[in-house]
Structure formats: C-alpha cells, structure tokens
Design goal:
CATH class of the largest domain: Alpha Beta
Strand content: 25-35%
Order of helices and strands: EEHHEEEHHEEEHHEEEEHHEEHEE
Radius of gyration: 19 Å
Structural class: alpha+beta
CATH architecture of the largest domain: 2-Layer Sandwich
Number of strands: 16
Length: about 280
C-alpha cells in the first residue's frame, strides 16, 4: 500500500541551517529504518535501481542557500513508502517513538504525524489495486488530459546529462519504471511508447529551480504545473496513463526523489468536456 506521511517538526533551538536539508532528511529516515531492520536499510542504501521511498526537503526553509529556523514555528517533512516492508516499519514512526531527528547536526523535534488527506493535503494512502481502478474497473469515462504539479524540482538523467523539462515520455517512463518495480500489477512497456507518440504538452507554467548535489554543485530542475493531452482516443492506453498519474503522488517523478526532487501530485480532473465518454473504444483485455 503506497503511503505518504507528513511529519510536523520544529528545531530544538534558533539556528542557521542550509536551505536544502533533503540529504540530511534522507539519512535520518534511513537511520529509522536501520534501527528496525538493518538488512533492509542496507538494501535500500546499496540498491542502484528504483528506491521504495521518497524523502522531501524540509518544507518552510525558503529558497535561499541558508535559513534561520525558529523553534516556535512548524516545519514539515514528507516521506512516501512504496513497499509493504517499509509500511510496516513506518506504522511505528509516531512522534513519541521518533522523538528527534538529527538533520545535519541540528536536532528537530517531531511534533505530529499526518497520514491522511484530512490531516494534510500531501498525506494519504492507497493500495495498488485502488490506484489501478482505471484499468480494473473499466470506468464509464477516462480522462484525456492530466495536469501534474511539480512541487519540488523535477529532472531526469538522459544520455549522461540532466534534462530539466518534463517531457511526456520522461515523466510517464519514470512512473512506469517505479510502478513496475513496486507493484505486482505490472503495466506493459509500451506505455512509454504511447507517452512518446501520443501525449502532447497541453500547457505549462514552469520555472527553473536549483538544488545542491552531494558534491556541492547545483542541479537544475523545473517546478510548477504541466498538462498532458492524449492525441488518440484509445481508452486502454489512456487508462494506463491515468493510473500512473495518480501514482505520482506516492512515487515522485524523475531522478533524486530520495533527496527532495520530484515531489508531484495530480491536480483535480479537467472539465467534463475534456473527458471522453464511454462511447469510445472498450478497454483492452
């Protein structure tokens, strides 16, 4: 069951901290995993493939290289989990049990935990079967437009270079890889080809943003919103895209999702005139 948890945290004292603590946050979450299951923590750390979790930067630090944090203010840290093993561990991650997180030498008290949308708009959970409903339930209508919000920089590795623009094949190819690495309900590899050939960028409101790498260099990504429109009426492939667009809330998109990049969510469905009725082609078996 993919799960998104948002922790409310406060620094133990007024301090000057780096404006990007995503690597420190990732290390702190790995320490929590290590304490409960050392073998799992080692696997996650050493695996070169898709990781079964994402970790955000600390929300509320602003956009400058450094920030002064105030112990009277609330800040937030978002973690998403994509495996049953991590979900079981995370059930024990209460404010009382965690106590404090060490982020780059600064202690942060965990004040609260939000695990549902009612508690925080970036929290929630869903089973893979629920996320796959556009394919499993054959709904009366399937969207033809999807608008994704990239709340933190999104970037992709392509031929050894960074590509900071969310092209359809890169976005949905990334989602497809993570879905098939995490779910038993595999989607066909041809989804990537469909995204390449049959999805167009409808409109976008994006700006460039930078975050430091481990070596101190800046990595460029894009933040904002981007809409994708299907150029064909094939309901099966559009249902696949719909599944992946909903999954983005938990998986993140692109490179660096364990260190703050690619925090993404699907925005509300477009108006009815952008959704094709059930009179189109039936979903493929």
């Amino acid at each position: 069951m993919p799960q998104a948890i948002v922790f409310t945290i406060r620094p133990s004292e007024t301090a000057r901290v780096p404006g990007n603590l995503s690597r420190a946050a990732h290390a702190a979450i790995l320490r929590l995993i290590q304490a409960a299951d050392p073998a799992l923590a080692t696997r996650i750390h050493d695996d070169d493939g898709r990781k079964p979790l994402t970790v955000s930067n600390v929300w509320g630090l602003g956009s400058k290289p450094t920030a002064t944090v105030d112990p009277s203010r609330d800040y937030h840290l978002r973690v998403t989990l994509l495996s049953a093993e991590l979900e079981r561990l995370a059930s024990e991650w209460t404010p009382e049990r965690i106590g404090e997180l060490d982020l780059d030498g600064q202690a942060w008290r965990v004040i609260a935990r939000a695990a549902s949308a009612a508690e925080h708009p970036w929290a929630g959970s869903a089973t893979y079967q629920q996320l796959a409903q556009p394919l499993l339930n054959r709904p009366a209508s399937v969207p033809s437009v999807w608008t994704l919000e990239f709340a933190s920089p999104i970037t992709f590795r392509q031929r050894g270079l960074n590509m900071p623009f969310p092209l359809p094949d890169l976005v949905f190819g990334s989602l497809l890889e993570q879905w098939n690495a995490s779910s038993e309900l595999a989607l066909p590899d041809e989804v990537r080809r469909y995204a390449t050939e049959c999805l167009a960028i409808n409109r976008y409101e994006l700006r460039s943003a930078a975050a430091p790498t481990s070596g101190g260099a800046l990595q460029i990504g894009a933040v904002g919103r981007c809409s994708y429109r299907a150029t064909t009426g094939d309901r099966y492939w559009r249902a696949c895209i719909d599944v992946l667009a909903g999954f983005a809330f938990y998986s993140g998109v692109g490179a660096g999702t364990t260190r703050g990049f690619g925090q993404t969510r699907l925005l509300p469905k477009p108006p009815r005139d952008q959704v094709e009725s059930s009179h189109g082609n039936a979903l493929r078996d």
